[in-house]
Amino acid sequence: MRxxxxxxxxxxxxxxxxxxxxxxxxxxxxxxxxxxxxAAGEKNPWLAWDVNMNGTYNVLEVSRExxxxxxxxxxxxxxxxxxxxxxxxxxxxxxxxxxxxxxxxVSGELLCNYYYERFGLDVRGVRYPxxxxxxxxxxxxxxxxxxxxxxxALKRKDYTCFLREDSTLPMMYMPDCIKSTLDLxxxxxxxxxxxxxxxxxxxxxxxxxxxxxxxxxxxELAVKYxxxxxxxxxxxxxxxxxxxxxREEWGWRPGYDLxxxxxxxxxxxxxxxx
Length: 274
Ligand code: VAH
Hints:
Helix content is 44%, strand content 12%. By secondary structure, the protein is α/β, with parallel strands linked by helices. The chain has a single domain (15-273), classed as NAD(P)-binding Rossmann-like Domain (Rossmann fold, 3-Layer(aba) Sandwich). The protein has a three-stranded parallel sheet. A three-stranded parallel sheet has the order 3-5-9. α3 runs parallel beside α4 and α5 (145-155) crosses α10. Bound molecules: (3R)-3-hydroxy-L-norvaline. (3R)-3-hydroxy-L-norvaline (VAH) binds next to loops.
């Protein structure tokens, strides 16, 4: 990406820094992806509040002041909590997350929708499931086992998973994540009923199902399951998501199933380990 145009570092908790960069590069569209994720946020909830809440507030305010045309602020399935139906979780349902990350994402959704209603700022967002990529290392998330297992399968054919084998969670391969983000940002504003809080789904699987799929390529893979503190977070999240609003309002359709993602992940990672 750095080769594709100007590149600069921005601290989203520093409003003046944001204002300077938006002015310097005459920015009209912002994808605000900075956040402290679920597991890292439980280790440092104060930092998670500062980055996720003050950072999002700064991006909204600078976008409003500078006349940014369109803004993307992702949410997450982490907005759901133990009171939320876990199967086919509805678009509009109870949101009582038990993590700092989750509550900052609920607040972020409400703040973004306020900026649309009150100021007409065209801000959009989706509730990302766990995102799986071969390009970036795991980063403090509860779903990171689904990235780590690929690296360990290739390196050592052995992995110790920090979730129970039956912990089914909603997941998505990075190409689908990028496609969904761009599809929503390209959608006609008049067609949108929701704005910053679309449910989004692709594939739901458990650690055992993922391990079994990888074994179709690496039969010797051995996996142990030793749940840690992240198990409680995973148990508070949905297993499957109803993303009918995204499908109806802007035509969302995922492109990768578990088999296709596994094959592509291994094909791209092999070059790092062979
Ligand atoms: C996390 N990967 O695990 C992130 C994501 C749905 C989970 O928000 O915290």
